[in-house]
């Protein structure tokens, strides 16, 4: 992998060597780099119809046919993402964790929890999980996922959910290898 340091390219006989990373809660001085990673999500593996990203911002795909009303969406969606990330620095019900290798952020995960007013227990949600392509399959994503689950368990969550976009086969395989099972299909209605 030209352009990557030797520690990214190293492998052993049984496969890629796990990277020595520190997984920690995001800090204010990390936000610009995490935002750049957020914008890297794109369409790496999921074929999509023609989409417009102009009004919605990076990572938010909307059919280009104009069938969906956008009047309730702020004109600067990137500011909403940045505000969301900034909120995870100290928020009790939402967090962002980064995988740090000597000051280089290799990935991040965001998560949150919520409770139901009439049901016992809390549900933990793994929201975004992203690892730089050059360091995937090196235990970075697994360590980020574990940090999110530890945080959610500390917040008394007992059920955990994640959504993977239709066609996200690599994401589905990653979560299944981590013990997750598909129990339902999530449908979304935007109003």
Distance between the termini: 44 Å
**Numbering strands along the chain, what is their spatial order in the largest sheet?**
3-6-7-8-9
Helix content: 25-40%
- What is the global morphology? globular
- Poorly predicted runs are 1-13, 45-75
Number of helices: 5
| Total count of domains | 1
CATH architecture: 3-Layer(aba) Sandwich
* Fourth CATH level, the homologous superfamily: Gcn5-related N-acetyltransferase (GNAT)
Describe the protein's architecture and organization.
This protein is α+β, with helices and mostly antiparallel strands and 191 residues long. It has one domain: Aminopeptidase (3-Layer(aba) Sandwich). It has helices at 6-9, 31-39, 77-87, 140-154, 169-177; strands at 11-12, 15-16, 22-25, 51-52, 62-63, 94-101, 104-115, 122-131, 157-162. Strands 3-6-7-8-9 form a 5-stranded mixed beta sheet, with helices on both faces.
Keywords:
5 helices, two-stranded antiparallel sheet, 5-stranded mixed β-sheet, 191 residues, alpha+beta
Offer a concise description of the structure.
With 191 residues, this protein is of the alpha+beta class. The protein has one domain: 3-Layer(aba) Sandwich (Aminopeptidase). The longest helix has 15 residues.
Element layout with pairings:
Blueprint: H1 6-9, E1 11-12, E2 15-16, E3 22-25, H2 31-39, E4 51-52, E5 62-63, H3 77-87, E6 94-101, E7 104-115, E8 122-131, H4 140-154, E9 157-162, H5 169-177
Parallel strand pairs: 8-9
Antiparallel strand pairs: 1-2, 3-6, 4-5, 6-7, 7-8
């Amino acid at each position: 992998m030209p352009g990557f340091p030797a520690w990214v390219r190293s492998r052993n006989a049984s496969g890629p060597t796990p990277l020595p990373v520190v997984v920690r809660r995001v800090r204010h001085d990390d936000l610009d780099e995490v935002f750049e990673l957020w914008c890297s999500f794109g369409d790496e593996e999921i074929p999509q119809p023609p989409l417009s990203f102009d009004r919605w911002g990076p990572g938010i795909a909307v059919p280009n046919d104009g069938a969906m009303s956008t009047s309730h969406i702020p004109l600067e969606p990137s500011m909403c993402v940045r505000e969301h990330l900034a909120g995870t620095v100290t928020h009790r019900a939402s967090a962002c964790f980064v995988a740090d290798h000597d000051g280089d952020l290799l990935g991040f995960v965001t998560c949150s929890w919520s409770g139901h007013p009439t049901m016992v227990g809390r549900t933990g949600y793994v929201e975004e999980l992203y690892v730089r392509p050059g360091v995937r399959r090196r235990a970075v994503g697994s360590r980020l996922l574990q940090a999110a689950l530890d945080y959610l368990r500390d917040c008394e969550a007992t059920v955990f959910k994640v959504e993977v976009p239709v066609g996200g086969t690599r994401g589905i395989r990653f979560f299944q290898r981590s013990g997750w099972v598909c129990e339902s299909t999530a449908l979304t209605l935007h109003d």
